[in-house]
Amino acid sequence: xxxxxxxxxxxxxxxxNDVSTICSKCGEKILNVMxxxxxxxxxxxxxxxxxxxxxxxxxxxxxxxxxxxxxxxIISRNNLTEPVRFCETCYKKVAPKCARCHNIIEASSIVxxxxxxxxxxxxxxxxxxxxxxxxxxxxxxPVYPLNDKWYCxxxxxxxxxxxxxxxxxxxxxxxxxxxxxxxxxxxxxEYKGDYYHPTCFICSQxxxxxxxxxxxxxxxxxDQQSEVKFLCENCHIKNAQECxxxxxxxxxxxxxxxxxxxxxxxxxxxxxxxxxxxxAHFFKTKDGKYICQQCSLQQQQxxxxxx
Length: 307
Fold this sequence. Notes:
The protein is of the alpha+beta class. It is built from 5 helices and 20 strands.
């Protein structure tokens, strides 16, 4: 099927001082009337349909947009190739047709399942209880096909198919772990837009299923194809770092790191006021303790007054 664009050209009188009036097809000088296309000039009888040979000068024609054309249709002269052109009659033989209305597509089209449609034809087939057709434009929308028709999500859910649009979305996916499809009626585990069989949704250390259980995960890398690693609660606790202050495992909540050590946020406190320091400014004393900025200023003021 040939992709084309509609164009037009007009006849022009050749004046005596024209110096660039060599026909781009036959290479002969143009003495009287010429036509032009893409900065090239032609004798009117040389500017013709690539199929039937009818002249296209002075009217509309269809020009191929394909970069690769069958060698038998290419006209070559001085290493220059001419585009394939069609008159309207010949164009109808090769023109793409809308898969819904079966009329020729002259402008832009929508491609779905290897078929082409007019944008105005690619609309939802749904009909409400009053017989009013939905006709929602489906361009850039999720499409739900059924029996050679297609529907928007709302209309598909109203059909008596036994399968919701959401289920169809899942069934169109593949397991992020084994890359196999999901069987209708099977259980599916979902995490941040990825779907897993429950038997594939497992702890990366002990291989036990974490479906419907508490779990922890390692962040995805920049490589979206890399496998996300999950840890069950028990393995997460085993791998958790020890708080340098209370010596217990840091299992939940934000950890504070300083000088190569990790602390519970609640353990990383000022030795004077015992408030959490968090990520605020603080100072380390000679005996290795930490004091917040406010307590440090108060201590400096006290030392100045007692001197």
